[in-house]
């Protein structure tokens, strides 16, 4: 019932969009769904759409992987140790407060204008959100469980996998959901810098030539990829619960 209602509301929005764009094209600023569909076909025929989608997806996956790989150990250290928290916590919170457009010039100076800068910007956005959730997940673990593990002299790898990882998993998945969303937002910023492919590049090109049909198509692609990302994370979360 919930899923049906969600799709019903989405279809209602598309119906409202179609209804509001029934007037002639010259009398409105927003393109109709039919015009956006025509732009989709034209860009597919041009051969730029799917290669750009593939490049954007790979950039997000690379940045997300780097961000998660750095955030998990940092969150564990910060959550499990006061000294670790004092060292790591404040710099991460300062990093979270810096907007992506402000970070981009600094990363260009440090890493150039190639793929490394784009992946790094996405990784920074993903890192902060996963870090905060992992840190809070570690702090929320019942200390009596750890004391019991010490009393029974359980091996460290068992404590890590059976207590720490299982206790942190729900918060980690929450952080991953937010991190994926922020990764797509960061992608828009980084793909406006010296990009010849990617959805952000197509969006910038459409703005340059005032192709509102292509602009809306790029926005729809971002929404669809965000929805797909949410479904993938949900599937991973269900799989983790089944195996746990």
Describe how the helices and strands are arranged.
Layout: H1 2-20, H2 33-46, H3 49-80, H4 82-96, H5 100-111, H6 115-140, H7 143-151, H8 156-190, H9 199-208, H10 212-243
Helix pairs in contact: 2-10, 3-4, 3-6, 3-8, 3-9, 4-6, 5-6, 6-8, 8-10, 9-10
Low-confidence stretches: none
Report the portion of residues in β strands: under 5%
Succession of helices and strands: HHHHHHHHHH
Helix share bin: over 70%
Report how far the terminal alpha carbons are from each other: 28 Å
Mean pLDDT: 86
Q: Work out the radius of gyration.
A: 22 Å
Structural class: mainly alpha
Descriptive notes:
The protein is an all-alpha fold and 244 residues long. It contains ten helices and no strands. The relative contact order is 0.12. The model has no long low-confidence stretch (mean pLDDT 86).
Short key terms for the protein model shown above:
244 residues; 10 helices; 84% helix; elongated
Task: Provide a brief overview of the structure.
By secondary structure, the chain is an all-alpha fold. Helix content is 84%, strand content 0%.
């Amino acid at each position: 019932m919930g899923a049906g209602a969600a799709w019903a509301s989405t279809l209602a929005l598309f119906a409202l969009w179609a209804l509001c764009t029934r007037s002639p094209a010259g009398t409105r600023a927003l393109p109709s769904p039919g015009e956006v569909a025509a732009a989709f076909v034209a860009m597919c025929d041009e051969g730029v759409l799917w290669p750009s989608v593939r490049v954007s997806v790979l950039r997000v996956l690379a940045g997300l992987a780097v961000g998660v790989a750095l955030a998990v150990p940092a969150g564990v250290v910060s959550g499990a140790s006061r000294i670790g928290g004092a060292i790591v916590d404040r710099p991460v919170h300062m990093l979270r407060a810096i907007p992506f457009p402000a970070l981009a010039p600094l990363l260009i100076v440090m890493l150039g204008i190639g793929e490394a800068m784009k992946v790094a910007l996405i990784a920074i956005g993903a890192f902060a959100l996963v870090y905060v959730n992992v840190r809070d997940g570690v702090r929320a673990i019942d200390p009596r469980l750890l004391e019991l593990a010490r009393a029974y002299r359980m091996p460290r790898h068992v404590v890590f996998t059976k207590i720490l990882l299982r206790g942190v998993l729900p918060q980690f998945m929450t952080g991953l959901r937010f991190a994926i969303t922020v990764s797509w937002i960061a992608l828009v910023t980084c793909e406006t810098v010296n990009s010849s492919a990617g959805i952000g590049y197509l969006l910038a090109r459409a703005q340059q030539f005032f192709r509102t049909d292509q602009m809306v198509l790029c926005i729809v692609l971002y929404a669809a990829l965000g929805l797909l990302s949410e479904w993938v994370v949900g599937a991973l979360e269900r799989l983790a619960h089944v195996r746990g």
